[in-house]
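User: I'm curious what two different proteins look like when written out as structure tokens. Can you demonstrate?

Assistant: Sure. I'll show them one after the other, since each token string lines up with its own sequence. Here's the first protein:
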Amino acid sequence: MAAAIQRSHPGRRAPTDGGGGDAVARELHRLIAVRGKPPTFRQFAKPAAGAANHWFNGDLAKLYTAIGEKAPAMTRRVDLLPTSADEFVNAVYVAIGGQYYDDELYTSDPDAVDRYGEIARLAARSIYYLQIAEATGRQPEPAEFGVKNYEWTWAGGLERGWPLLEQAISRASIGRT
């Protein structure tokens, strides 16, 4: 409730990922003090990503402006998401073997429900895959994606599942212009 009050109060800076509005500015100034010069966009992207994504749709230049700093460069955003996030996640879910089911499956085949749950978690995380790709200009490595946080039994292991997930994400994002 307090966060909602803070956000609606005129004149207050927007909070960032639970850390107050000045947290990103403090981090920028800390980086400048440590290095003796401002960080590059890429160096500043990691500590500022949460606030930039939450408040400015990933635009670091707008975040710099909001904290009263001059951006070191202009960003060119290339949106890799061809549809709504829900449609994209659903396409990835189906492409990696997920199926829609009714409540009867909970009693008739609980293992299938667990498998579809694993697939659903990965499909939901596919948005993060695209965010990494947008930020770095390349496909993320498995460790960057956080593969250790997910079960891969649905595919027979990570070695088989990771390429399947990458292919599904690629197919689901083909509609981009």
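Here's a second, unrelated protein for contrast:
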Amino acid sequence: MENEDEMCDSGEQCSEESSDMENMEDVAIRRKRRRYRHPEHLKFPEESEEVEFDWALLRNLKRTRICTVWACKSSSDWWEQIVLTTWNDQQQLEMFRMKRKMFYHIILMLGPHVTRQDTNMRQAIPPDKRVGMAIMKLASPFSRYYIANQFGVAACIVRLATCEVCQLLKETT
């Protein structure tokens, strides 16, 4: 017997064909592991049933997505509670470089053009807020990020509102 070292589990001598089959199976397993690098596809012999259950739970959680609408919570209290209600004409003049009467005249003039509809995702920004963002950006050295924080909107909305108001003012004059 040339291959006395090769013994099968049952104590019988294994042939070269069975060892070749085992090598081919090992190669196939290695190929699968290379193909599926994601941990959920790999099966390791040392894993217990609890770990298998955790992987199955993870796989199911990953497959079932709960679609939700996300938005950053922001506060527009500065605009709604302070500027519109408590500021006097002098404070309005310092921040927006115009009196309250002129500010509301511009809102009346541009309001129908900048009004948007509410959607299922979010409420529309009121025209006074849009015009206020644009005028504050044009009248002050503050960055659009600061203005966005004060008004409780994103910085891109400040930019869009500013461009829109400037375009409308150019067209109406």
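A detail about the second structure: The mean pLDDT is 77.
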